From TrEMBL:
Domain Ppx/GppA phosphatase C-terminal, first and last residues per copy: 316-474
One MF term in the entry's GO annotations: hydrolase activity
Gene Ontology BP, a term: regulation of transcription by RNA polymerase II
Gene3D superfamilies given in the database record: 3.30.420.40, Exopolyphosphatase. Domain 2 (3.30.420.150), Hypothetical protein af1432 (1.10.3210.10)
Protein name: Exopolyphosphatase
Pfam assignment, any one: Ppx-GppA_III
InterPro entries noted in UniProt: ATPase_NBD, GppA/Ppx_hydrolase, Ppx_GppA_C, Ppx_GppA_N, PyroPPase_GppA_Ppx
Keywords of this entry: Hydrolase
UniProt similarity note: Belongs to the GppA/Ppx family.
Amino acid sequence: MQKQYYAIIDIGSNTMRLVIYLREKGGRLKEVENVKAVARLRTFLESDNTLNTAGIQRLIATLQSFQDVSATYALQEVVCVATATIRQAENQEEILIQVEKQTGLTMRILSEEEEAYYGYLAVVNSTSISTGITVDIGGGSTEVTYFENRELIKAHSFPFGALTLKEFFAKESPTSEELKQIRDYLAEQFATLPWLRNREVPLVAIGGSARNLVQIDQNLKKYPLAGLHQYKMYDTDIIHVSNYLTSLKPDKLPKVEGLSKDRADIIIPAIEVFHSLYKMIQADCFILSRKGLRDGVFYEQLSKEMGSILFPNVLEDSIQELINDFDLDPKQILHVQYLTRKLFDYLKENGLLHLTKKDWTLLKRASYLCHLGEYIDAESSAQHTFYLLANRTIDGLMHKDRLQLALIASYKNKTVFKQFIKPYKQWFLKEEQKKLRHLGALLKFSYCLDATKRQVVKEINCDIRKDKLVVTLHCDGDAKPEEYQSEKQKKHMEKAIKKDVELNFVS
């Protein structure tokens, strides 16, 4: 089947971007190319709100550059959207005509409502957050939405963005008085929307300024995990980054790790927006969504085929993507899951391990991806499994959840587990670490019962006899490889339940 590629060009007030997606087997879109140009079209708006000739030329030259890149792909569709600066330009009709004439592209100018809506759509279709407030700071506008149970309730676009707010500062380093002025202004603006006040929900941020804030925070903390999507911060973290940046001399700002040079002069006003909004809604946390307007536009396209704008199972779809990418066997997954559930229930009901419903959710997720690292190298499967799951974005999982999944799915033995968890030890209490180890040992043992992927072990029964756990395994066919592997692995189970385990393989 021929690969299907789609492209979107996003014409913002500060930056312009070309993103090319490949459509996956399951229908979702995977980003394969991301080209950014700092056009700063906002600075070409005249006092009468017309985009001047130099601005139109910058726009067209950038679009032509993007076309050179996209020409290497056989594209099914190219979508070109523009936001605040083109929307506010009095001569937008002339801009549309010039763009079509010189590039052949039909530019779609998004309304304020559409811009806010696409941000919301991207968040609910790529995270597990069901209720929250989104914020997307562009160069010339800021969109906020409130959604509840994944349904859009309210949306608004403010006529200020990072470039316009920059005008509050006479120089790149703001004075205390200038910071007070911008904070008062933002508090006043957000207060005009009563539905923002005291929501006590997550504040989900979209866009380049939010990404830069997160990257700086990760660098300051020497954050050990890769990935930005669904990264969580709190108001103290935002204040810490803000204080760090405002303490620097202007010439030091562009050299800050995690901060793009083209955002060095607009990051401080952008952070003020995040912090003011955080306080207004009394947010319980700040979360970054790497998926934004561009993804929202394509999610709408996909929804026409699905018949719904909301993906019903964000996390399940993301796990399915991994199953496809690493060519995992669905039949084996379901069989290992069945055996694991039988063992889990017995250990729980007989008090051999303290297990909860939440533990089963963790174990079930991990069973889908158990030792996917074999795809790369069977000998170092555990290492590859851990690295891939811990450092790959999984839509619907926050970073700590992703790490738990990686630790369970990659379990080999206690020593290797300790190596994997070492950089993250402070993330978990000792009891939590022990629980993850026990869940990993249980999954690894079940996995050994289908070592040759033939589903030879059909049924499993457990019994406690004379302070020993006797596990009877009913087989259909030769189960010697399974017997060898599970005898090797059972010692980890024995340590977890503090009992000897006897395995009986019967035909």
